[in-house]
């Protein structure tokens, strides 16, 4: 999933704001703008083509039967001899996990991103799904990709104000791991940057 940003019109100031980064689609109203940046694919489809693409998608924690969705996710991961970091970005396996959530889910699970899906114990795969559901609920509630739990009021305010304070490993190449102090690693995988802690996720 690509990165999305939604902004609301300020009381005073220029509107709309200038695009930031590689904006592929901008949805604009008099009071709000949503920018789609860096998608893997960006096409204009007919309604029929769009539905055909939707029908190919894996389960989404916000849509459909939660029990059936979890079972589809577990089955989709555990039958593949593909690195879990790649499976989490495969929209046929699970809908909506983008690069931020991929890195953060794997760190929160202390899971090596290169472990093949079929080698992961079922309870680990289920825990990943439950954490994804949890993080999505936080995202819906806050409007932010906030992946650090149990923050003090001061840390939460900082995280809401700055993207740099919202994540464990994402976009933190070379910075110390927030848990063990090891420099966060980054490598291209599946055409996207993967971030992880080489110690906590060994």
Automatic annotation (TrEMBL):
<dbReference type="Pfam" id="PF06831">
    <property type="entry name" value="H2TH"/>
</dbReference>
<feature type="domain" description="FPG-type">
    <location>
        <begin position="168"/>
        <end position="202"/>
    </location>
</feature>
<keyword id="KW-0862">Zinc</keyword>
<keyword id="KW-0863">Zinc-finger</keyword>
<dbReference type="InterPro" id="IPR000214">
    <property type="entry name" value="Znf_DNA_glyclase/AP_lyase"/>
</dbReference>
<dbReference type="Pfam" id="PF06827">
    <property type="entry name" value="zf-FPG_IleRS"/>
</dbReference>
<dbReference type="InterPro" id="IPR015886">
    <property type="entry name" value="H2TH_FPG"/>
</dbReference>
<dbReference type="InterPro" id="IPR010979">
    <property type="entry name" value="Ribosomal_uS13-like_H2TH"/>
</dbReference>
<protein>
    <recommendedName>
        <fullName>FPG-type domain-containing protein</fullName>
    </recommendedName>
</protein>
<dbReference type="InterPro" id="IPR010663">
    <property type="entry name" value="Znf_FPG/IleRS"/>
</dbReference>
<keyword id="KW-0479">Metal-binding</keyword>
């Amino acid at each position: 999933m690509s990165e999305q940003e939604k902004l609301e019109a300020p009381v005073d100031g220029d509107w709309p704001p200038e695009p930031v980064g590689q904006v592929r689609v901008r949805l604009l109203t008099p009071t709000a703008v949503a920018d789609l940046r860096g998608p893997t694919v960006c096409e204009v489809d007919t309604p029929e083509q769009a539905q055909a693409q939707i029908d190919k998608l894996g389960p989404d924690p916000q849509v459909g039967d939660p029990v059936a969705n979890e079972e589809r996710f577990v089955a989709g991961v555990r039958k593949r001899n593909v690195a879990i970091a790649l499976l989490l970005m495969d929209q046929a396996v699970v809908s909506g996990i983008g690069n931020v959530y991929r890195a953060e889910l794997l760190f929160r699970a202390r899971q090596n991103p290169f472990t093949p899906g079929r080698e992961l114990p079922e309870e680990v795969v289920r825990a990943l799904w439950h954490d994804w559901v949890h993080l999505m609920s936080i995202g819906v509630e806050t409007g932010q990709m906030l992946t650090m739990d149990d923050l003090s009021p001061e840390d939460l305010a900082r995280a809401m104000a700055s993207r740099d304070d919202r994540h464990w490993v994402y976009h933190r190449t070379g910075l110390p791991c927030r848990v063990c102090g090891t420099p966060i690693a980054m490598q291209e995988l599946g055409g996207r940057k993967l971030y992880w802690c080489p110690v906590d996720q060994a």
